[in-house]
Amino acid sequence: xxxxxxxxxxxxxxxxxxxxxxxxxxxxxxxxxxxxxxxxxxxxxxxxxxxxxxxxxxxxxxxxxxxxxxxxxxxxxxxxxxxxxxxxxxxxxxxxxxxxxxxxxxxxxxxxxxxxxxxxxxxxxxxxxxxxxxxxxxxxxxxxxxxxxxxxxxxxxxxxxxxxxxxxxxxxxxxxxxxxxxxxxxxxxxxxxxxxxxxxxxxxxxxxxxxxxxxxxxxxxxxxxxxxxxxxxxxxxxxxxxxxxxxxxxxxxxxxxxxxxxxxxxxxxxxxxxxxxxxxxxxxxxxxxxxxxxxxxxxxxxxxxxxxxxxxxxxxxxxxxxxxxxxxxxxxxxxxxxxxxxxxxxxxxxxxxxxxxxxxxxxxxxxxxxxxxxxxxxxxxxxxxxxxxxxxxxxxxxxxxxxxxxxxxxxxxxxxxxxxxxxxxxxxxxxxxxxxxxxxxxxxxxxxxxxxxxxxxxxxxxxxxxxxxxxxxxxxxxxxxxxxxxxxxxxxxxxxxxxxxxxxxxxxxxxxxxxxxxxxxxxxxxxxxxxxxxxxxxxxxxxxxxxxxxxxxxxxxxxxxxxxxxxxxxxxxxxxxxxxxxxxxxxxxxxxxxxxxxxxxxxxxxxxxxxxxxxxxxxxxxxxxxxxxxxxxxxxxxxxxxxxxxxxxxxxxxxxxxxxxxxxxxxxxxxxxxxxxxxxxxxxxxxxxxxxxxxxxxxxxxxxxxxxxxxxxxxx
Length: 716
Prior knowledge:
Blueprint: H1 6-19, H2 21-28, H3 30-36, H4 42-63, H5 72-90, H6 96-117, H7 120-123, H8 133-156, H9 158-162, H10 164-189, H11 195-218, H12 224-271, H13 282-295, E1 301-308, H14 312-339, E2 348-349, E3 353-354, E4 357-358, E5 364-369, H15 377-391, E6 396-398, E7 401-403, E8 407-413, H16 421-437, E9 442-444, H17 448-468, E10 473-481, E11 486-495, H18 506-516, H19 519-540, E12 545-550, H20 558-571, E13 578-583, H21 584-588, H22 592-603, E14 607-611, H23 617-625, E15 630-634, H24 645-660, E16 665-668, H25 673-681, E17 686-687, H26 701-711
Parallel strand pairs: 8-9, 11-12, 12-13, 13-14, 14-15, 15-16, 16-17
Antiparallel strand pairs: 1-5, 1-8, 2-3, 4-5, 6-7, 10-11, 10-17
Helix pairs in contact: 3-4, 4-5, 4-12, 5-6, 5-12, 6-8, 6-10, 8-10, 10-11, 11-12, 14-15, 17-18, 19-20
Pfam family, one: GGDEF
Protein name: GGDEF domain-containing protein
GO molecular function: cyclic-guanylate-specific phosphodiesterase activity
């Protein structure tokens, strides 16, 4: 039976042994009762003694038979052979001698066979690993043949009975010689441990003494009492050896259970490896690192997380299945380099020391013990990172695909950056992001970034609350035809007062809105506000367009088109009065879905404008394919000194290009008279900026329009 089940099944089975204690107590008292009984003869007393010492051992062996491998049948047969021997001594019959010698021969054979017949592969009954199992098998068969020959001769050949002492001595000598040979054989196997050999030799001597005294007794030279003494000593030593054997098996069972549990843990470790890289995964690595930190809080470790920054190209070209092969090659090269560094924390064996783990995505982890560092920590860490980077081959190939991997590293240090494992890992990942964003090889965690992060989180929370409470401030900036002093349109803008000092424009807080997850709600509020302005204008008889800025093509959702249609129906406003303004980058990088939604907006007669127009080939090709009604260029460079001639020349070219393409162009960010005059000289006509007009709140728009018309009556 498997040793591994000991902890579950064996406990229930041992309960039966406890219940048998009372019965065993009665059995143990049996020899005492026998010794005090006056009616017992000498032979009966010996039988009672044998029964008293053997029965508890035999019962215990029977109860443990399903837990340990021990040939309890041999013990029962040996005890029975002794009973038959004593019975033969008191039997008054013609075959008394044959019966006694048969029992004695069986006894000698069994006491020699018992150690040999034990299952050494499972229980290690002789205390050593049997390297000569085939030889032992031959010894067992030889003893069985000898006893069969002797018994046949004893019962069926008269000469053997006539020379009983000689026949028995010849048989016993042959069997004991086999036993002695096996004892010497086991001694050679375990030369450093003489325990097994000495026990077998003691048994051999006592068995030989019994055979010798019995032979002398048959010839009338020795007394019967010496035969009994030799037999009892031989049996007691055999029984003691059997008890030792049983206890060894039980102890081995307990050790085997622990060994199996350990093996199970190793198997569990292999199951927990990442299938793509054959490295330990995050949870296991974190637990080992946490245990190390718990043992010594003062010990300094460097948490190094690195990433192959250009591996995404492999996924795009080869797909995940094939890219995993390249990733496995990369992990193998890195692990080979890391395994030889004794200062790196070990996460397991496979078969060499595993000192690297895989985190989420393409991030890998090593933990550097700084205790043995002779130089400054940063110097040793930089050297480690450089060694890891150098371990990657200059070009890794899969079939015809080849790529040079570049590694980026992020580092945090325990003690300096904290003592919590999760925090150290997070800080190292933040440093890794810094390396990737700034295209560095190594970045160390900066504690000041925590303050920045907390500030950003506070900003997100504050902006989120202001968006939901509609606590943003809207204003309109007019777009004026400066040649004719005529209003071309209006652009809706928004201010967010993070503090009381200065309002923030949309471009300054849009990233905070995106990170807070409320940028789409902000866009819907902007559209709603635009339609309210259009409705107010139409009520007063003004039919100008209102522009709304979308910061990303990701805002082009089907729901957004439906929302605009709902606003058009609610306020009874046609789509031609609304202008959706998108940045040039968003237009060029628009997905097919976004382009389809732009087509839906055009179907509603909504105009599309491009802000930040650069005049590049890609943008011009897009203009040729898509119906764009406006382009906007940033004219801030016109307000600067004459040194910035290149930017001014570019703006001049864009103005001329738009005139050639007969595409309405709006110059934005015209902040002073110099810029406005330069823009006008270039041929620009539609202007927007602080120099044109700072802005108007929606509630005062009609008042401003009335004043504008009074100042420009001919241009109305």
